Amino acid sequence: MMNSSDVVELTQQINDKISALRTILELRTIAKEKDKLNILVKIGKDIIAINGLLDTLEKHVFKQRDVLNGLKELEEFFQEDLRDGHHLRDNMPLHMPRKGLQTAKPSTQSQQDVAQQGREQNPQKKPSRTQIREMVYITTEEFESIPQYMKGRVTYTQLNVAVQSINAAVTGKYSILQQPLKSLTNATRKLHQRFKDEETKDTKGHFFVVEEDIREFTQLKVDKRFQGMLSMLRHCQRLRELRGAGHTRYVLL
After folding, report:
1. HEC profile for 80-113?
2. 222-252: b (≥16 Cβ within 10 Å) or e
3. Closest among 165, 152, 18 to 88, alpha carbons compared
4. Which has the closest alpha carbon to 88: 168, 183, 187?
5. Which helix or strand (DSSP H or E) is residue 251 part of?
6. pLDDT at 83
7. Cα(207)–Cα(132) distance, rounded to whole angstroms?
8. Could you tell me which of 85, 79, 249, 242 has the C-alpha nearest to residue 166?
9. pLDDT tens for residues 48-96?
10. What is the CA radius of gyration of the chain?
11. Which of 176, 194, 195 is nearest to 185 (CA)?
12. Residues in a beta bridge with 244
């Protein structure tokens, strides 16, 4: 592939050929009759040479255009991975280990202090009736077992970001469902009613979300790429679909 100096040299050659051709055309009128044929032959050769140089330059331009388009596409993928990485960093689940943090079990006295502090801050808060279930993160082995046609360009990290977002939606939804109606605001009361309306006999005893819940509680885009990740999660037996009444319910397994 040509570099920038080659392009400059090629451009200079074309300009020199055109300049020489212009000079020949200007001098043609004062040339002797017997020399005019040779001049025309020279002009024809120069035009052919210029066409060849222009063809070479055009091929180089097309190659550079393809390279530029490829770089732009690569930049888009990089920016998307960067956003996913920032989202994962800023929303790291509390239960996941962090570098440099102590993992020792807190003392009994510390546990009592924390419990007492929680009671003081929330004196009327009652324990939740049901522990909200979360989807288990995908392991590297499970990710490698997913067919390539299903993964596409989705990375291991991006798939677990989707798991995290679904868990956030499940937690947000069922935290509202487990609150007394009288404690809800008008907005959360409407959400509570929508959640109840979307339940069926098949969802009884199960935790599930719909696409609207993902939009409500997370920043994850519900698009074609997200649908592909849902297929990957079904493959890994993290969820299943229940369709009906105009909704697709994603039930945690």
Report:
1. HHHHHHHHHHHCCCCCCCCCCCCCCCCCHHHHHH
2. beeebebbbebbeebebbeebeeeeeebbeb
3. 165
4. 168
5. strand 247-252
6. 79
7. 8
8. 249
9. 777 777 777 777 777 777 777 778 877 877 787 787 777 767 666 544 4
10. 34
11. 176
12. 247
**Where do we find the tokens 């291991």?**
156
Question: CA of 59: how far to CAs of 5, 11, 53, 55, 242, in Å?
Answer: 16, 13, 10, 6, 54
- Tokens for 21? 């051709």
Most confident range (mean pLDDT) of 22-26, 30-34, 39-43, 144-148 is 144-148
**Averaged pLDDT of the chain:** 79
pLDDT digits (tens, 9 = 90+) for 180-212: 988 999 999 999 999 999 999 999 999 999 999
How far is residue 244's CA from residue 226's CA, in Å, rounded to a whole number?
20
Distance CA 238, CA 169 (A): 15
Sheet strand arrangement including 208-209: 208-209, 247-252, 239-244
Alpha carbon of residue 203 to chain centroid: 31
Per residue, the 3-state secondary structure of 44-84, as one string, reads: HHHHHHHHHHHHHHHHHHHHHHHHHHHHHHHHHHHHHHHHH
Residue 221's nearest CA partner among 172, 165, 177 is 165
Q: Give the pLDDT confidence of 128-170 residue by residue, as tens digits.
A: 467 888 999 999 999 999 999 999 889 999 999 999 999 999 9
């989202």: which residue's tokens?
Answer: 87
pTM of this prediction exceeds 0.70: no
The number of angstroms, rounded, from the C-alpha of 2 to the middle of its chain's C-alpha atoms is 34
CA distance 232 to 150: 7
